[in-house]
Design goal:
The strands form five sheets. Strands 5-8-3-2-1-11-10 form a seven-stranded mixed beta sheet, with no helix packed on it. A five-stranded mixed beta sheet has the order 13-14-15-17-16. A hairpin with a 2-residue loop joins strand 6 and strand 7. The protein is built from 19 helices and 19 strands. InterPro entries: Aminopeptidase_N-like_N_sf (IPR042097), ARM-type_fold (IPR016024), LTA4H_cat (IPR049980), M1_LTA-4_hydro/amino_C_sf (IPR038502), M1_LTA4H (IPR034015), Peptidase_M1 (IPR001930), Peptidase_M1_C (IPR015211), Peptidase_M1_dom (IPR014782).
Length: about 650
């Protein structure tokens, strides 16, 4: 191993047990899921007691090498094979087995036979044959897998390594970073980042990590707000169990907006332009500390259990911290986007179900859509309304977290616990209320069966709709329009206005000219969330005088949420040649996955398979793009630059 640069890192974590559900004895509210169709593993045959990861990272050859140790106990007699999920980018060198505490021949670590079989386009199955002596009731054994990545980054001197872990240590002499997680977490929340990172403490349990060039900006935007938000969340939902809440800002090319890794939230640095969107994104990730991280959906087909509850919790926090009007405004903006997506998909599209079904081979990320968040939020809001008092529902959520903490659940777990917590609701058969049946919420297509009362946001949404109505009149009244000052609005008001204008496209050339004269220069001074929406209006209405603004925007912004919507609009109209020109000028600075996506848009190459009735481009709604796109898997890293390697040159997997 001498050829590899250090440091190494060690992540130890306990198991997240997935409770086995039996479907016997009557039908429940949601279908019991004994198999995770997005996994090839036979995880129901084993209990994972401990997980150890030791890695060495090498930037020079863009390689990670190391090993992981799985301490397992067989749950079923006679099982002879351990099946794990793996990825084609891993080159496996050897797999060993050991029974701790055994003596004699069984204490030797024999090499095991294994094979790698195709599974899906996003992963493979690793089938490991187990010796007969290993499988004994209640006896632990250890599997060690040694491997090298065939495409990935590594760490030179001076680079800081961070991980989603509750404890960390660094040996300067050995250049070894060590991390441990004392709480059980699902595998998708094990995250690592390396780069030229510095930090500033922003509270008693929080610090901001970022490249030096943006650290001051990040700290000034967050200030002491994070501790305030954590305190509000704890008052609502109980203690924050993860200890630290740190944030690392990632380069603009990072393919997702934010990721709720325990103890260390990842956020794309582009979002720093908008204070309101940054606020919502951070609070949403904080809410995941309870909903998603502490209690996790057992299968990807019920992601609303994480995202719908986190969205509800996020809005409870913003209501307590910033008032009901602001929360209602943000909700109106998101529900507008939900109904816009519904119009595109149709009311009978199966992707609009909360318990969405997908076939083997389908990447779960293709199901990340606004229904998971906003329809899920509406269902949780409906449950809150049934209680008659939001504070009573807060008490229920605290009890729910305490009951299921550090475990995975299905919808039936949540709803059974809800009806048990409120026996009077169970006695009145609210689960079968006509038109609002729980089963219909879960398995019915279309928009939410009901939405919460958002009239408290009228003081903020009213002026937006009034201005939209003025622009819809023929001809628009310039004197009346002049009474509205967009610079006095917050970002959510402005983007709601532009989204509703976008819904009215196509607009006449005269109206576009008047809009440009009124707002174009003013919008140039605003954040990217605002500018992209104006530029989409420009593209969809073929307003050529503002075309240079599109070029400048795409040269500056290289994140998925700001590029994909514009490229889709450019290529669906008469500006495809212009789009291709800008792409060739900027492609070297794009993330590899984003490059491939834009090439598919530009040259109409085949996209990845998607479930029947779904769309190939759906988004993590924490992203604020008006045209949602998916949470992506990361591809090979770009070639390293010469000299000092900044974080923006490193592709990091969440």
């Amino acid at each position: 191993m001498a050829q590899f640069q250090r440091p190494t890192l060690c992540c130890c974590r306990k198991v997240l047990t997935v409770p086995s559900k039996s479907c016997e004895g009557g039908q429940g509210l949601g279908q019991c899921r004994l198999v995770d169709i997005a996994s090839a593993s036979n995880f129901h045959c084993f209990k994972l007691r401990h997980f150890h990861l030791d890695l060495r990272l090498n930037f020079a050859v863009k390689e990670i090498t190391g090993w992981q140790v799985l301490e397992l106990v067989a749950l079923q007699p006679g099982v002879q094979t351990l099946v794990l999920d793996t990825h084609p980018s891993l080159l496996i060198h050897s797999i060993d087995c050991k029974v701790p505490g055994s003596t004699g021949a069984q204490d030797i670590s024999p090499s095991l036979t294994y094979r790698v079989d195709p599974f899906t386009d996003y992963g493979s199955s690793l089938n490991i044959s187990l010796p007969a002596y290993v499988i004994r009731p209640h006896r632990a054994f250890q599997i060690t897998v040694r491997y090298t990545t065939t495409d990935g980054p590594a760490v030179p001197e001076g680079v800081t390594v961070l991980m989603s872990a509750s404890r960390s240590a660094y040996s300067k002499q050995d250049r070894v970073f060590q991390f441990s997680m004392e709480y059980p977490v699902p595998a998708y929340l094990v995250a690592l980042v390396a780069g030229d990172l510095q930090h500033v403490d922003i509270g008693p349990r929080s610090r901001v990590w970022a490249e030096p060039c943006i650290l001051t900006c990040a700290v000034s935007k967050l200030g002491g707000s994070v501790e305030r938000w954590l305190n509000v969340a704890e008052d609502l939902f109980g203690p924050y169990v993860w200890g630290r809440y740190d944030i690392v800002f990632l380069p603009p090319s990072f393919p997702i907006v934010a990721m709720e890794n325990p103890c260390l939230t990842f956020i794309i640095s582009s979002i720093l332009e908008s204070r309101e969107f940054l606020l919502i994104d951070v609070i949403h990730e904080i809410a995941h500390g309870w909903f998603g991280n502490a209690v996790t959906n057992a299968t990807w087909e019920e992601m609303w259990l994480s995202e719908g509850l986190a969205t509800y919790a996020q809005r409870r926090i913003t209501t307590e911290a910033y008032g009901e009007a602001f929360t209602c405004l943000e909700t109106v903006f998101r529900l507008d986007a939900l109904h816009r997506q519904m119009r595109l998909l149709g009311d009978n599209n199966p992707v609009s179900k909360l318990q969405v079904k997908f076939e083997p081979g389908i990447n779960p990320s293709s199901l990340m859509n606004l229904f998971t968040y906003e329809k899920g939020f509406c269902f949780v809001s409906y449950l809150s309304q049934l209680c008659g008092n939001v504070k009573r529902f807060d008490s229920f959520l605290r009890a729910y977290i305490e009951q299921f903490k550090f475990s995975s659940v299905v919808a039936q777990d949540l709803l059974d616990f809800f009806l048990g917590f409120f026996p009077e609701l169970k006695e009145s058969c609210v689960a079968q209320r006509e038109g609002l049946e729980f089963e219909r919420w879960l398995n019915g297509c279309g928009p939410p069966l009901c939405e919460p009362d958002l009239s408290a946001g009228g003081v903020l949404t009213g002026p937006v709709q009034s201005l939209c109505d003025l622009w819809a009149s023929e001809p628009p009244d310039p004197e009346a329009i002049a009474n509205f000052n967009l610079s006095s609005w917050n970002t959510f008001q402005t983007v709601l206005f532009l989204d509703r204008l976008l819904d009215r496209s196509p607009l006449s050339h005269d109206v576009m000219g008047q809009l440009s004269r009124c707002y174009s220069a003013q919008l140039d001074e605003m954040n990217a969330e605002v500018r992209i929406r104006w530029l989409q209006i420009v593209v969809r209405n073929s307003f050529y005088p503002d075309l240079p603004r599109i070029r400048g925007f795409l040269h500056k912004h290289t994140s998925r949420m700001y590029t994909v919507p514009l490229y889709e609009d450019l290529c669906s109209g008469v500006m495809k040649c212009f789009a291709a020109e800008v792409f060739y000028q900027t492609q070297a600075r794009l993330h590899p996955n984003l490059r491939r996506t834009l090439q598919q848009i530009l040259f109409q190459t085949s996209a990845l398979p998607t479930p029947t009735g779904s769309v190939p481009s759906l988004q993590h709604p924490t992203a604020s793009s008006p045209s949602p796109t998916p949470r992506d898997q990361l591809g090979p890293a770009d070639p390293p630059t010469t000299g000092t390697i900044a974080l923006r040159d490193v592709n990091v997997s969440a």
